[in-house]
Amino acid sequence: MALQRDDWLDVARKVDWEFRYVDEREVYPEVVSGSPWLSHESWKNWEEAYRNTYREYVQNQLVKDDSVFAVRDALGKAKITERLDPAWVQLAKFHNGAIALGEYAACLGELRMARFGRDGAWRTMANLGALDEIRHTQIPLMIGQDLLKFDSRFDWTHKAYHTNEWAMIAARHLFDDMFTAANALDTAIQLTFVFETGFTNLQFIAMAAMADGADDHVFEKMLASIQTDESRHAQQGHPVLRTLIENGGKEYGQYLLDKMWWRSWRIFLALTGTSMDYLTPVHARRQSFKEFMEEWINDQFLKNLEEFGLEKPWFWDQFVEELDHAHHSFQLGLYTYRQTLWFDEPVPSPEERAWLEEKYPGWTETYGSIWDNIEKMWDERGELGTLPYSLPSLCNLCQLPTAFRGPGKNTACTLEHNGRKYLFCSEPCRWIFQQQPERFAEHQSVIDRIFKGDCPTDIYAVLDWMGVEQHGKDLHNGEHPWRQKRAAVSA
Amino acid sequence: MTERSEKKLKTYSMLQTGRRLPSNYELVSSRLHYHYPHNFELSNENPVSKWYYQYRESSPLQAHDWEAFADPRSTTYRGYNELQNDKETVVDGLLREIDESNYDDELAAEWVTFLHRWYGAWRFPVHGLEMISAYVGQMAPVSRITNAGAFQSADEMRRIQRIAYRSAQLNARRGGCEPGEQKAFWEDGEPFQAVRELIERALIAYDWGEAFTVLNLVIKPHLDRLLNEELAGVLAATNGDTMLREIHFSLNEDALWHREWSRELARVAIADTPVNADRFAAWVDEWRPRAVAAVESYVSVFEQAPVRVDANGVFARITAAAEEDVKAALATPVG
Ligand SMILES: [Fe+2]
Ligand SMILES: [Fe+2]
Q1: Gene3D superfamilies from the entry (chain A) (predicted)?
Q2: Which residues lie across from A423 on neighbouring strands?
Q3: pTM of structure
Q4: What's the domain range around A318?
């Protein structure tokens, strides 16, 4: 009779022993293992809900890869630029650049937990998580390579993280804080509990549904398959948070949660929010970004918090208010500064505007009027009239432009610290900075670097410094069909 | 505004090397770390950034171009699972054969006791190897080395799980050798103590170059042979346990790859920066006596098996082969 998994797996996961020749604190230094430092006694009941053996892992992952590659082999070589909606192709470039090598950084986070996690079961799980993240890097790199011959800006799938492009600096700053340069305990809570359990469903499952609607089945299959790995290794967060709370670390747990909720919100509105509501073809939009957030993130995640007796983040009201406008404001910023991006940005068509008004009542009054203005500038002055005259201000925490203003309301704020003046897009970003100024204070935003003379000030030289050789532009090159129709009617 | 150039790329611009297109391995494994050297987007005071800048950027082991390293097996994620799934299928077959025959009934009682004492507890030191390998992977300056470290770490997990399974399987049939009790042999058994000391000390060798050297050029060439080839190989077969030898033959294939990529990494490091040979040699000189002591202390158990194998012979074979490995790895490249 073959053994059942539970007959033997525990003795393979619970492999901690008492150190005799070195001290436990040397094997798990607090700076890389995390605070509060607890002896193994406190960690020994670490358990994940769904277990996996190595044997099952290599077999299951092979099957999953086979099904992704079958779709890629069948469809991946087809000419994407003819087959897909042009705005959707921009979304794919945006996603690939922002995600592929970020996944690889997550491999380091997993390896850190595989070494400095405090129980054998945790380390075992993290080891498989590290392999998962290698997968999440390699699949998009292969798919991105297929697309290079149709659009050379898919080069950013590989290149983006190596550049000084401002959005990529923001991504690096976030991920370094979350896991690449974070200790094992912080990584478990920030990456696996908040980011993966809380948010990645949205980028991977909700976006996969939209990819299906947009007929991009390679992308759809890739996203859906990646998320099955995420939900497995995301389990690490729960038992770590539980142990922390049981040992008097509830306040710290709440801090990590609040911090990473806000930071995740910033990156998701910037990437996912704008992608869903502006780059996805209307017919493929399953729900609005706000609806997804409310249904998939808020409701689900709040249940998770109750389980631990944690509170909603203190800025909850501001967060809920931002659901209605932050990504719309940010989209205007992306469009305006499109030359700094590696993909093109559209002006919303009348059909899209109607959809936006339906999903976000009041959108037309607040944002439609600004887009009207942009169209008017195209009519009157052409492209030059639609480009910015000045550099945006960037937040010294999230590194994004301080462009999240609501109707009639600017959320930016400042702080003096050790003689330097810092700018923040919002109170929560300032609050995060203030909790650990030593972690963030030394960092220079792109704008700081420009003023310090570390990078050029001439706009085209700045673009070269950012690595943006083929500048993003208006998706229609300014020839918006609805404007041309209007012109024809009035002529 | 500058006109967009429409040149079509055949591969990612950062991976272009002359006219040759990157292989699939190169395409998915190269230049994936954005933070080396000195490039985390946080204050340098952040403790984990500092950790990296100290143990990675300031390691005595330095090269101009670590990217010159390529895994000789060209392991991709998909390739890894294919390979390991095949190996695991073989081991599944062996374990099933044990279940379906009266194999376990025929093992001598003394051999069952011996395995309980001196075999099952290997999952603890192997877990140490798994941890150090994960460390080498996370500290490596380039992604191709990180990948090798991550896959090696997973291979050690495989070995732990097969040892655990086999121990539980034997206990289910023969009783009296509860795997849960085996930690005591690791923590208190005299022959294990030098192995334990070696692993515990290696866990805190935090310099990246030192960790790699200690793990892959010193410890594993000794302990992998001791476990896979001698204990679960020669000694098991001598005691009629040929199935254990077969299982570890498969596990040892992993160890052979660990040696192979490590040899290649050492070669690249020395070819790039010749003084690296001295750095490797200094670490090897410092750590080899501990590894030798570990083997020497552990091999005494070979004399406790129902059918003994000469401990001195085992010791001599392992240390000579491990020494050959290091010599080959650190040989000055010809030409
Ligand atoms: Fe991932
Ligand atoms: Fe992940």
Answers
A1: Ribonucleotide Reductase, subunit A
A2: A414
A3: 0.97
A4: 32-78+86-490
